[in-house]
Amino acid sequence: MKTLYLLRHAKSDQALPVADRDRPLNPRGRRACRPLGRHLGALLPLPGLVLCSTAVRARETWEGVAEGGGLDWPVNWRDDLYLAPAGRLLAAVQAADDSLAALIVIAHNPGLEDLAHRLAGPESDAGARAVLDQKYPTGGLASIVFAADRWRDIASGNARLAAFVTPRDLGEA
User: What pTM value is reported for the model?
Assistant: First the structure.
């Protein structure tokens, strides 16, 4: 079994006159990280690796989540995950070491949302699927479970969307 957690970066500050890649989190986004970190720290299996976009808002999301949950997981900072389409995100996951039972990807929409939709099969939790079908908001976290032993064997529709939570669900409005 493999478990993939897909975390969209927290809310960023779109008002700043900086390049998109350099946009930091806004105060709401920073507040959302703490409950996300606590939630992630309570999940099983725990991720053995974080694949994170190098965009400032993604890096700050991981740093805030890690601090909020007391998480000290290894991170692979990846330029290729910045605004990556679903296919590129899936390729990064499929290349993961098979000794990892779970991993987390921190990236951007629309690629992250597209990947979650692509992977979630017919056995997905109906409530989680309904939320995902509405929107993949900033700070949204999808938990996807595969009946595969190797990351390279995960593919479209062969997984179960087990849960989908947002910062609001965790008490951060």
Answer: 0.96
